[in-house]
Amino acid sequence: MNELTIISRKSTLAKLQAIEVSEAIKRKFPELKIIFKTKDTSGDIDLTTPLHKMPEMGVFTSDIREELLTNKADIAVHSWKDLPVNLEEGTEVAATIKRADQRDVLIFKKSSFKNKKLEIFTSSPRRQENLSKFLKKAFPFEIDSLSFPDIRGNILTRVQKLKDSNADGLVIAKAALDRLLFSSEKGFSELDSFKEDLNTFLWMVIPCSQNPCAPGQGALAIEVKSGNKKVFELLNEINDLDVFKDVEDERKKLKKYGGGCHQKIGVSIENHPLGKITTEKGLTPDNELIDKRSFIPFKKEFSRLENPIKDFYPKLKKDFKLFSRSKINDGINEIKTIKNSGLYISRASSIETGTEIDLSNVIWTSGIENWFKLAKKGIWVNGTSDSLGEEQSKPESFLKEVKWFLVSHIDSQSKDKKLLATYKLVPEKDIEDLSKYSHFYWMSISSFQEALKRFPSIEKAEHSCGLGKTFDELNKLYPNKIKPFLNYEDWLEKINEAK
Q1: How far apart are CA 229 and CA 224, in angstroms?
Q2: Measuring CA to CA, how many Å separate 81 from each of 66, 85, 190?
Q3: Greatest Cα pair distance in the chain
Q4: Which of 158, 236, 369, 474 has its CA 20 to 30 Å from the CA of residue 452?
Q5: At what angle do helices 469-477 and 445-454 cross, to 10 degrees?
C-alpha cells in the first residue's frame, strides 16, 4: 500500500484530528503517502435545527461514510462521540489512538460574574440535565435562574456567537479546545484570534463525577469500509486497544438506556493507576434519575476487605478529628496579594471566609466537596482533581502558564509547588482510644501518623483511604496492604456489607 486517503469534516478541528491520526500512521509507516479530503455533512449544513431534534443516525458522519462505501477514501476520522450508538452495516470503526481529555469546559463572560439570571449555550440534553444541578453549587454566587439555549456550529463559530450574544457562557468538550489551542500545525491562522478570544473569559473544567461525558468524548474513531483488509492491517499497528475497549464499554452502557446524543445521560470510564472509575449520571427517557459512580481496582487484593470487622473508624466523617488548626496570618495575607498564579487548595478550610482571591488566578481543589465549599466563600474555582489524586488529575491552566502554589498546612510537601501555609496542625490533647478498632479510613497521612504514634497497636489493623496522595504515602509504608476506595462513603458501604 503506497498511499492512503483520509477524509474528515471541513472544520478546523476535524482537519486537525485527521492530521493527528495521520501522524500516528506516519510514525509506523514513514514512506506512506497520505492524502487529505474534506466534506460537509448534513449536520454542518443545517445550523438552525437544534442538535437534539435532528435525526439520531449520524448527522455528522453518514455523508462521510458514503465516501468510504464508494472507495473515494480509505479511512474517515471522526470525533467518536459523533458516531451513532448503532452503526449501519458496511463500515466499521477499525481503530483509535490515545484519548484526549474526556471532560467538558465552561467558558464564561467576566462581565456576567454575579448575574442572577444566566444563559449557558449548549445543544446537549446531557449537559443541560447534569449542569443544571452542578453549576448552582459551583458558581461562587447565588443565581435565580439558569437556562440552556441551543447553539450550533463548529467550536470557533460557537465562541464567536457567545461573544456576539447576550448569553453568559458556553459549554464545549475540553478535548476540542486542547486540540485547537495546542496545535503546532501551520496554515490555521484563524486559531490566533481564537486563542486571544478565549483569554478574555473565565473558565471551569467540569469533573466527570458531576458531568460524565458523552460516550467516546475525547477519542477519535477511525472508520473503514468493511472487508478492506489492507487498511485494517495497517490500522492494527496504531490501535490503542485500552482506549478502544473503554469507548466500547461506554457506548454499551448508554445503549442500555436506549440511545445516543439525544439522551440526558453521560457515561465516563476514567483510568487510574489503581483501577477504573465508571460514572453514569443523568435522566432516562422514563424520567428515572441515574447517579452511579464506582471504582474497580486492577489488583484483586484491593477489591475487598479481608480482616474480620470488629469495629471501624470513623463512623461519620465529622468524627475524623485528630487535630485542631492554628491560623498562620502571614500565609493568609499573602494569598490576597497573589495574581496570575495557580493555587492548589487541598482543603477549603485553608482559606478564611472573606478572603478575596484575584480572578486572574487559577484555583484547583483536591475534591468536589472543597470546590462547593470554596464557591460558598465567593471564590471562582477552575477545576478539581475529583478525589483521584493530584498526580492522576493534575491541576492545569490551559490558557496560560502559571506558577503553582500549594495552599495547605505548614508541614505539607509538594514536588512541584511552592508551599503557601495558612495554618498549622495542632494535635488534640484528648482523643478516643483508637486501639479498639479493626478497620480505619484515613483522609490524610498526618492523621495516620499521629494516631499511630499514640496507639502503635493499630499498625496491625486494616487501613483504607482514597485514591490520591494519602494512598501513595501509606502504600510506601505498607506496600500492597492499603485498600483504596473511591471515597469514604464507598468504604463505609463496603464495611456495612461485610459486617
Answers
A1: 10
A2: 19, 9, 25
A3: 79
A4: 369
A5: 40
> Quick one: 498 exposed, middle or buried, by C-beta within 10 A (0-12, 13-18, 19+)?
middle
CA distance linking residue 424 with residue 472, whole number of Å: 23
Residues 103 and 207: beta-carbon distance below 8 Å: yes
Are the beta carbons of 126 and 266 closer than 8 angstroms?
yes
The model carries a pTM of: 0.92
Report which of 325, 378, 388, 389 is spatially closest to residue 355, judged by C-alpha positions.
378
Which of 324, 293, 379, 400 shows the shortest CA–CA distance to 113? 379
Q: Sign (positive/negative) of CA torsion 331, 334, 335, 338?
A: negative
CA-to-CA distance for 177 and 236, rounded, in angstroms? 28
Q: If 0-12 CB within 10 Å is exposed, 13-18 middle and 19+ buried, where does residue 64 land?
A: buried
CA dihedral 214, 219, 224, 228 (to 10 degrees): -130
pLDDT digits (tens, 9 = 90+) for 75-118: 999 999 988 888 889 999 999 999 999 999 999 999 999 999 99
Q: Which residue has the cell 478541528?
A: 13
Using omega within 30 degrees of 0 as the cis cutoff, is the peptide bond preceding 273 cis?
Answer: no
Set out the domains of the chain in order of their start, with CATH numbers: 3-100+219-261 (3.40.190.10), 104-206 (3.40.190.10), 307-316+430-498 (no CATH), 323-427 (3.40.50.10090)
The three cell numbers locating residue 362: 487559577
Sheet holding 117-121, edge to edge: 145-147, 117-121, 169-173, 104-109, 201-206
Amino acid at 429: K
What confidence tens digit (pLDDT) does each residue in 13-64 have?
999 999 999 999 999 999 999 999 998 865 544 445 555 554 544 545 678 8
Instruction: Extract the C-alpha cell encoding 96.
Output: 483509535
What are the grid coordinates assigned to 50, written together? Answer: 437544534
- The beta strand positions in 208-258, using DSSP E, are 220-225
Angle between helices 155-164 and 174-181 (to 10 degrees): 100
Pick from 373, 268, 482: nearest CA to 491:
482
Name 403's Cβ contacts closer than 8 Å, sequence gap at least 6: 341, 342, 418
Burial class (CB in 10 A: 0-12, 13-18, 19+), 354: exposed
Give tens-digit pLDDT for 219-251: 999 999 999 999 999 999 999 999 999 999 999
- In whole angstroms, give the CA distance from residue 159 to residue 165: 10
Beta bridge partners of 117: 145
Residue 18 DSSP label: H
Q: Give just the sign of the alpha carbon dihedral 66, 71, 73, 77.
A: positive
Which residue shows C-alpha cell 453549576?
135
The grid coordinates of residue 102 equal 474526556
CB-side exposure of 5: number of CA atoms within 13 Å?
13
